[in-house]
Structure formats: structure tokens, C-alpha cells
Amino acid sequence: MGSSESIAIQMNFNRSSCFYFAGEQISGNISFQNDRDRLKLEEIFVERVGELAYRTQDTRSSTDSNGNLTTEYYTDYHHIPLLTIRVPLVRPSDGQ
After folding, report:
1. Is the pLDDT of residue 71 over 70?
2. Percent helix, strand and coil across the chain, each rounded to 5?
């Protein structure tokens, strides 16, 4: 989130979670603080990003020359972006 001007934009959700399931309603508010006399607002939008996330686990064992067994455990985390949807919240009318 940001702006190229010296203003403050803050977005607060009613539920503090970084993870939402498909079909869940998300609500909250946007605070916009402007200390300038004149500032042209182009657009306010929210981008929703859908992502597939999963983990895989692997075990590797080896035996050294003395017959000692060593086992190592590996966990990999995978994130695959599926979609990005931009939803305009505030947009100037035509001609502005």
C-alpha cells in the first residue's frame, strides 16, 4: 500500500488474519489522512491474491562406513499464485 505523496493510507480488517478461505466475507475500513490543501486522488483499489500453498516432507537416510545410520528430515514449502483480482473502491468520475 502506498502513495507517491506525503499522506497516510491505512487499511484495517474486522478480523486480523492473513489467511481467508474461498467464500469468506472480508470487511473493514480504509483511513485516508491528507495534510495537503490540494491532492488529486487517482484511485483506491484492493488487490486480492489467490494462492495455492502446500508443504512436502522428505526423509533421507544413509549409513556410514562404521554402520552408523543417519536420518535427515527436510520440509519444503511451496506457494503457487493462482489469480490476482484488482477491485476498485474509489475511482473518479469521467471527466475529472
Report:
1. yes
2. 0, 60, 40
